[in-house]
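Intended use. Records like the one below are meant for learning the mapping from a protein sequence to its folded structure. Do not use them to infer anything beyond what is encoded.
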Amino acid sequence: MPRYFTHYWARRTFERECAASGGLAHTAGNLFSSRGVRPGDVVFVVSAFSQQVYLAGAMDVGFLGSQEEAAVALGTTPLDLWDADEHLLAARCTPCGATVVPRSVVEQLRFEPDGKPLKFRPSGEVDQQTLRGVRQLQPLWGQELLAILPPLEANPYTSPEECPETYSEGPPIRVAVNRYERNAKARQACLTHHGVRCCVCGLRFEDMYGDRGLGFMHVHHCTPVSSSERQLTVDPIHDLRPVCPNCHAMLHRSTPPLSVDDLRSLITFRWPDTRQQ
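Structure written out for the chain above:
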């Protein structure tokens, strides 16, 4: 039986992430392991402002690991993700959007281990401090929150079987970076149009790994998402390119990144297109 947890987003993060399309496929923080979160549990992302408690959605946790491991599973680089010790990826998730939790439910929510409720200010607002961090809900109230949301659906980014195992290699090192949301539909449209052959070196994972490599490829933003402070409109045909992880890393070894054409001019080996043989 799954356990249920709340994970708090500040208002600015909540509003930004809910404005982006897609499911609640990924979140990050520093308290999941210490609070007992593990794969198979359900995590609700919550926030409280304007005298309301909101749900951004829920995820059925498929993977808990480091920033670097999450980047591999998401087909991106660590610099594109939240700076946090622990990252959750969903096996299943709801759409990400602002859902108001009815006041009657908010007042009755109870948390483990001793059934404590939320605290309220004299104005009647929820005291945000009682929601911050990660808290475990009693099962009844986890099920109650799930009933408010759309059904959990398979996560388009990853699945538990595709996620890497986790390993410990010394203490964590924190790096101050920002996270920029990727749109799964734009990624898929890019790969549908351009194919899954690296546009720099020509590698196609299926040629090397057979069925295991079928459909795998990173997607590169020709104009870095991090170069804009606002949400960008991305044309998946003109703005995105399929690149293998090696070439993706080489593109981003400089700031700003090299162009695809510039990197292609530097390589000394290009994989043959076996479809033409």
